[in-house]
Amino acid sequence: QAANQGFTGHMHETAWFFEAKGLYERGKQVMISLARMIQRFEHDPATYGVVLGMELMNEPDWEYWEKRPGIRQTYETMIPVLRQILPAERYAIFVYFKYVVNGAPWLNIMRIANAANYKGVVYDAHVYHNF
């Protein structure tokens, strides 16, 4: 999702998630698999009610906001799919925007244009402190 970032333990100079079609498609399938796994937790008394929601991507490289495939396209494609698995009444879907000035207006537009799918979609702000 981002060059030179190793959230998964693998760092590359290229954000292959968006650059390689096969990896992008695989990533979307992983999102669906994760949503189904979350749903299965509800049927286990030990994990019922534990998961509050799902974030699609963790801090993707913002240069991919408008690209295709990119962040915006991924959100617009996958949120309706995931809403079929994770209902808004029970689960939040978290979306990350590096620049609120771009992302927040888009989210507001999507909530109006597609209210059913974007209900419970919330902006996930990552705030880091240095002490």
Tell me the strand percentage band: 5-15%
Q: How many H/I helices? A: 5
**Strand tally, please?**
3
Our measurement of the CA-to-CA distance between the termini, rounded to an integer number of angstroms, reads 28 Å
Largest β sheet strand count, sense and barrel closure: 3 strands, parallel
Inertia-based shape: globular
Average pLDDT, rounded to a whole number, is: 87
Strand order of the largest sheet: 1-2-3
**If you compute it from the alpha carbons, what radius of gyration comes out, rounded to the nearest whole angstrom?**
15 Å
Element-by-element helix/strand order: HHEHEHHE
Essential attributes:
3-stranded parallel beta sheet; single chain; mainly alpha; 131 residues
